[in-house]
Amino acid sequence: MMQHPTPQPAAPIHAQPTAAAPQAISSGGYTWMEQGEQIRLKVDGILGFSSPNPLLRMFMSIAITLSAIFGFRKKASLIVTDRRVVLDTRAFSLWVLEKGSDTTTVIKANSVTTGYNASLFIFKKRYIAVDSIEIGAKRNFTQRDLEAMSQMIKQVL
Q1: Does the predicted model carry a pTM greater than 0.70?
Q2: Residue 24: exposed, middle, or buried by beta-carbon count in 10 A (0-12, 13-18, 19+)?
Q3: CA torsion through residues 151, 49, 78, 44, sign
Q4: Which among 157, 133, 156, 137 is positioned nearest to 145, based on CA atoms?
């Protein structure tokens, strides 16, 4: 014999929706990012160092290499998200232990400057500066990348 299912009572029309479970954010490892915030562009480099002088850069490279061998390094990133501009500076010791982290949110920028310093027309160091915050960009960032970032900074701020 075939049994008929018992009818279930219909849910009331004015029922409250259930709260959604929190979802993981794609934050790129940054705890300061908000729900749904996405990174549009990021430039890594050295904070406040954009010298084209090859001797000074060689000296700084040796100093950075020695500190890296002994397990100390400092990393700076200028990050443009879809909502804000953030300078993230992190210091590491013993290769993996984070000994300090500074996060600076840029609220208003009077000037955004991109460019490069050159020495002997061969050695170039590209940089981007937001007001007084200057980052000497790594070699893999072109001048066009930095100019695109300056346009994004103007749009976000």
Answers
A1: no
A2: exposed
A3: positive
A4: 137
